[in-house]
Amino acid sequence: MTTTSDAPAAPLLAATGVTMRFGGLTAVRAVDLTVHPHQIVGLIGPNGAGKTTFFNCLTGLYTPTEGTVTYRGTRLPPKPHLVTTAGIARTFQNIRLFANMTVLENVLVGRHTRTKEGLLAALLRGPRFHRAEKTSEERAMELLEFTGLANKRHHLARNLPYGEQRKLEIARALASEPGLLLLDEPTAGMNPHETRTTEQLVLAIREKGTAVLVIEHDMRFIFNLCDHVAVLVQGQKLVEGTPDTVQSDERVIAAYLGTPLENPPGDDTDPTGDAT
Amino acid sequence: MKPMTTPTPATPLIPLPLTIARALTTAGAALTALSTFLAWTWTKAFPGNLTVTGYPGGLQLLTLTGALLTLIQLLATWNTPGLRWLSPTRSHTPTTYLAAGTLATTWYTLIAISVQLGGLANLEPGGYLAAAAALLTLAGALALPFERRPTHAARTPLPPPRPLPAWAEILIIAAAFALALSVLTYGIGTAYGELFTGFLLLTGFATAALFAAGLITRLSALTHKHRNITVTAAFIAAAAFPLTQDTDEYTLIVVNILIFSTVALGLNVVVGLAGLLDLGYVAFLGVGAYTAALVSGSTASTLHIHFPFWAAVLTGAAASLVFGVVIGAPTLRLRGDYLAIVTLGFGEIFRITVGNLNGESGPSLTNGPNGIPNIPDLAIGNYNFGEKQKLGFITLNPFANYYLLMLLVTVLVVLVFSRAGNSRIGRAWIAIREDETAATAMGINGFRLKLLAFALGATLAGLAGTVQAHVAYTVVPEQYVFAGPVPPNSAFLLAAVILGGMGTITGPLLGAALLYLIPAKLQFLQDYQLLTFGIALILLMRFRPEGIIPNRRQQLEFHEPTTTATPPAPKAEAQTS
Predict the structure, then answer these.
(1) Which residue intervals define the domain ABC transporter in the entry (chain A) (predicted)?
(2) Among the CATH numbers 3.30.1340.30, 3.10.20.30, 3.40.50.300, 3.40.50.720, which is that of A1-87+179-259?
(3) Is B325 on the interface with A (CB under 8 A)?
(4) If we measure between CA atoms, which residue out of B23, B363, B497, B424 comes closest to residue A136?
(5) Over the stretch B456-500, which tens digit does the pLDDT of each residue have?
(6) Local structure of residue B374 (DSSP, 8 states)
């Protein structure tokens, strides 16, 4: 189990030996990962490396076949809503907003775990209910200001442009007041300008005291932001360390680009065309 | 006020200069109105007596109303002083709709006369004149610049209304409710099927015209502003209905409509908010009704106990709640289609089980197919619902008593729906409907909240069932089928929710009223009822997928212009502040 050199305190999230098998296919094999408070940790790897599967194991969408995930020292139950209650929020690789709810309502749904008013309170509408609704709305508006969506609060989520939908998903996740935010390819499909804005947003989230674990293919994004990067290849953790270490590791380059062929194509001396 | 920028007019269907088109429409409408004072047929065999020259009768009155409305609407689009407020959009579309409505009503009348009495020979010259004049009006109206997508026209921002003092606005709301009540009362009171068909045709087109003219938008802005007054006005208008009736004949119909619409609203919690397709919902109504019947002290009840009304209501609602949880707990882990199939099965199981609990094929509880007859009238203290009651000047017939009781139940259900829907729980339901995986990732316990919606829906249906048992005096298993000629049944309940508008309050109420009245009034439909509803639903899904009364959210969903438009909500806020 590698610990990062700049780790100041007890880990926020600790995954140990997480393995996920689907029948005969092992999508994630014995992955260890720790995230410390105030860290931005990147998770990279080629397509199909098992990054999203690993995320789903962390957030309870999948129950890992083996291994444990602890958050602030307590083991996480394999139920998504309990994971969110514990303090881990996530976004999805393919945007999953509540498309037919307004922007504000989307963020209010994110507040679900931080409010308690049940059906009876809603029917009786006591002063406490009104207070809780007001607080929720204020908090949601703060987050919309933070992500720059405040003036679109009454739009339907489905009508937002792509980049803003991504931002809204982040705002919705932040509404659950997480200690750790998991972002699954937050800049996929964005233009360079939008990507830079998202970078700023992620840094601002860290400023607010939330640690971030991010899956991303945009290497510039990863190496600009992350304190720590882990590389996942074919379900296994290949390398882990500071961006510089990872960037210069030959195995990472090989995983992404492949190794040079010993017999380049067109060379008829070896008909098997043996490539790695 | 600055003149409204008209929405880009499409080319009219009939190319004519504008002045000629206007003149044609005006002349046609006036002529149609005049023709209703002539005799349309020479025999009194057709109901409504259309043989009198000098004053209109029966269906002629509808044609007259249609023609006059067309005329008024056309004048309003011309900026006629005093009528301008009738056409905020300044669009010609409402005129076209009204002309089409008049044409439909008139031609329907004439065709009905010819078909029923055997041939065109039964028409008087007045009838021919009416047919020609109505056609002329529509031809003229079609030559007017026509807005092809009226929903868009209605959504282009209207010019701000002239500021009115608060009392005037309240008066307008009151007048609108009085108008709605009288139209509805007229519809319920139509004495024969032909008149009801004519009424349905005209009101259908007139409603479309109201939307296109922007009057509905104006009115909803007002009701939004004076929310409490609107709710009170709606309640008073509804409570005033029995006072307009001398006999119980139509009050019974309205009680049944209320029961039907209340159950539809309960189903709307399950389907509209939480997105759970429940095809066996009527079973919960049955549970409530059977429970109330068993504890009503009926001689046929196998339990010889007589609960006071409040206890019976609580027992009925509680029994439905228990059934809801028992059915929901194992099935709500299923999603989508599977849930629909399981609930469909449950609905049938309920009916068959109740039919078998007769002491022979099962324990003796429900008298099997014979049901529980002779359910006594309700009595709260000395107030017996089954007798005429005098309160001051007001005499309330038996069904008027039940009507007022049912109205209270409806108000309660409306309150529960609106309060639950607009809360943390309601948002969680909608989130589950939208994307269950994302909802659980937001910390929502999907199963628990779905069970809550299911149980709440069941409780509300059970509540309505307790009253239904007393109104119908008897409960039999065949009342609670999946699809049948008499509403409420599961298919009709779902149709009422979808037809009216999912996730709204007024939608299911209106949908249920229509689905109850149409088969009750149009006896000849009996055999083709399900066919007709199938076709009607398909047409509705094609042309107005959000239902008659769209949810604000769904209206945005289905009719959003391609660019992100300015949302209506901030405007409404500005008006309230």
Answers:
(1) 13-259
(2) 3.40.50.300
(3) no
(4) B424
(5) 999 999 999 999 999 999 999 998 988 877 788 898 899 899 888
(6) -
Shortest CB distance from A172 goes to which of B423, B426, B442?
Answer: B442
Question: Running DSSP on this structure, what letter comes out for residue B270?
Answer: I
B452 contacts on A by Cβ (under 8 Å):
119
On whether the CB atoms of residues B483 and B153 are closer than 8 A, the answer is no
- Are B576 and B225 in contact by the 8 Å Cβ rule? The answer is yes
CA distance B551 to chain A (A): 11
Residues 6+ apart with CB under 8 A from B112: B46, B194, B197
Coil/strand/helix, residue B141? helix
> What's chain A look like in SS3?
CCCCCCCCCCCCEEEEEEEEEECCEEEEEEEEEEECCCCEEEEECCCCCCHHHHHHHHCCCCCCCEEEEEECCEECCCCHHHHHHHCEEECCCCCCCCCCCEHHHHHHHHCHHHCCCCHHHHHHCCHHHHHHHHHHHHHHHHHHHHHCCHHHCCCEHHHCCHHHHHHHHHHHHHCCCCCEEEEECCCCCCCHHHHHHHHHHHHHHHHCCCEEEEECCCHHHHHHHCCEEEEEECCEEEEEECHHHHHHCHHHHHHHHCCCCCCCCCCCCCCCCCCC
The band of B381, judged by pLDDT with boundaries at 50, 70 and 90, is: confident
CA distance A224 to chain B (A): 28
With CB atoms and an 8 Å threshold, state whether B435 touches A61.
no
User: Distance from CA of residue A99 to its chain's centroid?
Assistant: 20
Kind of pairing, strands A228-233 and A236-241? antiparallel
Give dist(CA B202, CA B70) in Å, integer: 11
What are B21-36's pLDDT values in tens digits? 888 999 999 999 999 8
Domains of chain A by residue range = 1-87+179-259, 97-177
Rounded to whole angstroms, the Cα distance separating B463 from B288 reads 6
Cβ–Cβ contact A112 with B under 8 A: yes
Name the residue in chain B with its Cα closest to that of A59: B441
Residue type at B137 in one-letter notation: T
Residues of chain A in contact with residue B502, where contact means CB-CB under 8 angstroms, are none
A198 in reach of chain B (CB within 8 A): no
B564 touches chain A (CB under 8 A): yes
Tokens of B327: 């059915």
A59 Cβ under 8 Å from any chain B Cβ: yes
Interface of B with A in 537-556 (CB under 8 A): 553-554, 556
> Exposure string (b/e) for B423-433, b if CB count within 10 Å is 16 or more?
bbbbbbbbbbb
Other beta carbons within 10 Å of A87: 20
The count of residues in chain B is 577
Decide if B435 and A85 are in contact by the 8 Å CB cutoff: no
Token digits of residue B246: 């001398």
Distance (Å, rounded) from C-alpha B84 to C-alpha B79?
5
Whether omega for the bond prior to residue B488 falls within 30 degrees of 0, making it cis, is yes
Nearest CB among A96, A136, A160 relative to B435 is that of A96
What is the ipTM, given to two decimal places?
0.88
Provide the strand spans (E) within B379-433: 379-380, 383-384, 389-391, 394-396
Judging contacts by C-beta atoms under 8 Å, the chain B residues touching residue A173 are 442
The whole model's pTM is what?
0.84
